[in-house]
Amino acid sequence: MMREDLIKRAEQRVDELAPEILSVSHTIFENPELAFQEFQSAELLENTVKAHGFTAVRGTGELQTAIRAEHKPRSDALNIAFISEFDALPNGHACGHNLIAASGVWAAVVSDELVRQCDLPANSIFLGTPAEEGGGGKIKMLDAGMFDGIDYAMMIHPCDSTMVEDWSLAGQTITFRFHGRSAHCAASPWLGANALAAATETVNMVNAWRSQFRDYSRVFPNITHGGEATNVIPDFAELKYNVRSDDVTYHQELVAIVQNCAECAAKAFGVTVESEKTFAYEPVNNDKTLEKHMAAAFTHLGETVIPRYRDHGIGSTDMGNVTQRLPAIHGHLFLAKENTHTTAFREAAGGAPGDTYVVKAVKAMVLTAIGLITDQQVLNRMQ
Ligand SMILES: [Zn+2]
Ligand SMILES: [Zn+2]
Questions:
Q1: 3-168+281-382 and 170-277 agree in CATH topology
Q2: By 3-state DSSP, what share of the chain in percent is helix, strand and coil, each rounded to 5?
Q3: What is the DSSP-derived secondary structure letter of residue 63?
Q4: Do the beta carbons of residue 135 and residue 59 sit within 8 Å?
Q5: What is the whole-number distance in angstroms between the Cα of residue 266 and the centre of ligand 1?
Q6: What ligand has the least distance to the C-alpha of 90?
Q7: Ligand with the closest atom to the CA of 100
Q8: Ligand 1 centre from 340 Cα, in Å?
Q9: Could you confirm whether domain 170-277 is CATH 3.30.70.360?
Q10: Tens digit of each residue's pLDDT (9 = 90 or more) over 189-223
Q11: Is pLDDT of 317 > 80?
């Protein structure tokens, strides 16, 4: 079957399924669940793929809402994964993950039908990835082997523009805990070892470094504990740093700079310091072949694909770690001229713009998969 016929067939099938696609989007929108607590949403996604013959496996421990689902795979085929994020923010689905959820799961179902009906050399795999908002769900799924054997992975995020290129920052939070010795601040302050002084001097030293940081570095402190009484030299202080960079190697250099400053400050004030790091987000590095096929899909669907411009807001996502590990894409499709995480964006995600978006996003993902499956270079590389 020719690529054009496959595209036509896929678009017809998505249009037929539109009421069911919207139902998943609306149900998740109306029941927003926070990171790692998305039990109802996970169940809905799991039941959706199971109803279409997939076998689903959940993660364990913290990953109980993580899902991997597939049919018995063909061995000589491309393993293409469709990703659904489905966690909400405290202000509901203001990042539009209800749309990512519905588009990922239905793209997996439609692609699966297509490859089986038309005997195409591909397997369609569904991945439900929890806790994108700060929980690093995909990093934990990568570590747990839930992405193993996947050749290409894709997701589309709602946005104020349509783009296939992406750019995000590596990011990590480091917590420093300074331990000193308390003393009366007036009667005998010289007997104390001032943990707060070490914390504030760490901030001063990092600020002195700041003028030499590379572009697109973001290094932001929070003193989360600085003593409990104004008449006591603090014997404990806690300082947190959020450290980000668009370069994965330089990010580690920045982390080392901040760490050195904290250790030097501790030494200077005669206190000890211990540090703890969260998992590290890595920058997005979209696969060029996927960018090409997703751009063609968006254009086919009437979208204008613009380049990822550098003053468009940048954040960090656990999809970055996926794109550093295997060919993958974090694409963006226009939802509304609003910023994510706002009330206006949430209203768009749950309203008419979201309904238009989600049907288009399913088509775009299935068309991207068709692009891969009919790309001779991709097939040659697989053999
Ligand atoms: Zn978000
Ligand atoms: Zn998001």
A1: no
A2: 45, 20, 35
A3: G
A4: no
A5: 36
A6: 1
A7: 2
A8: 7
A9: yes
A10: 999 999 999 999 999 999 999 999 999 999 999 99
A11: yes
Going from the Cα of 73 to the center of ligand 2, the distance in angstroms, rounded, reads 30
| pTM over 0.85, yes/no | yes
Answer for the pair 131, 35: CB distance below 8 angstroms, yes or no. Answer: yes
Report CA(131)–ligand 1 centroid distance (Å). Answer: 10
Amino acid symbol at 216: Y
How far does residue 144's CA lie from ligand 1's centre (Å)?
Answer: 23
Q: How far is the CA of 183 from the centre of ligand 2 (A)?
A: 48
Distance of CA 362 to the CA centre of its chain: 19
Q: Where are the chain's structural domains? A: 3-168+281-382, 170-277
Report the alpha-carbon distance of residue 254 to residue 266 in Å, rounded. 19
Question: Over the stretch 58-89, which tens digit does the pLDDT of each residue have?
Answer: 999 999 999 999 998 888 899 999 999 999 99
Starting from the CA of residue 99, give the closest ligand: 2
CATH classification (class only), 3-168+281-382: alpha beta
Comparing 35-44, 71-80, 111-120, which segment has the lowest mean pLDDT? 71-80
